[in-house]
Amino acid sequence: MSSDEARTTRGLMLMVVAPSGVGKTSLTRRLVADHSDLHLSISATTRAPRPGEHDGRDYHFVDRAEFDRRIEADDFLEWAEVYGNRYGSPKAPIMDALARGQSTLFDIDYQGAMKIHAQAPADCVLVYILPPSLAEMSRRLHARSQDSEEVIRQRIARAKEEVSLWKTFDYVVMNDDFDRAYAELAHIYHAERLKASRNLWIEPFVEELLDEPIEG
């Protein structure tokens, strides 16, 4: 068995869910930057770009007609309408990456994560990022000045609903200290990559071990 064959693995889909204003984007972008085998899923969306966002890097920005065409073509692992805009995760590039041993990180909402998990539970790892408090979450949302007061109230109400569902996740991380939260998220990813079920090299390697003649 060659060295490459000996380490053949299947990638995983890392679902990171958190309310807006909790620091999920900073955590996930750093995790992707630090791991060459982990890539961010770039969703398609019908919403307009925010200041500093770029098509193809942050999202694939499309109009509703194009989004509907992709739904009809079954091009999404999941899609949902959130606050009047549609978001969808492309299917083909993600499944191809898993087969090549590459993992995909989803910066995704609860509804989307559950839809993908229902389709491929063995490939999914669910992580929820908790805010240190709802007051701090509200402060961060106001500080970034991207949402109206009504939208901020909706986001906080939705956060309360999601937090109550914490038992549906594989892991829960609190982002009260960024470095600690990042270290915990990275440990989760490393451990999941090492799971025997994802390391396809183990079975043939063990078979060779058992067939290996013992001298002396």
UniProtKB/TrEMBL annotation:
EC number, as in UniProt: 2.7.4.8
UniProt-annotated binding residues for ATP: 18-25
Subcellular location: Cytoplasm
Reactions it catalyzes: GMP + ATP = GDP + ADP
Transmembrane feature ranges: none
PROSITE patterns, A to Z: GUANYLATE_KINASE_1, GUANYLATE_KINASE_2
Broad class of the protein's primary localization: cytoplasm
Top-level lineage group: Bacteria
CDD domains per the UniProt record, alphabetical: GMPK
Keyword line: ATP-binding, Cytoplasm, Kinase, Nucleotide-binding, Transferase
Domain Guanylate kinase-like, residue spans: 11-190
Stored SUPFAM superfamilies: P-loop containing nucleoside triphosphate hydrolases
One Pfam family per UniProt: Guanylate_kin
GO molecular function, one term: ATP binding
A GO-annotated cellular component: cytosol
Enzyme class per UniProt: transferase
Function: Essential for recycling GMP and indirectly, cGMP.
Protein family: Belongs to the guanylate kinase family.
Classification via HAMAP family: Guanylate_kinase
UniProt name for this protein: Guanylate kinase
Species the sequence originates in: Caulobacter mirabilis
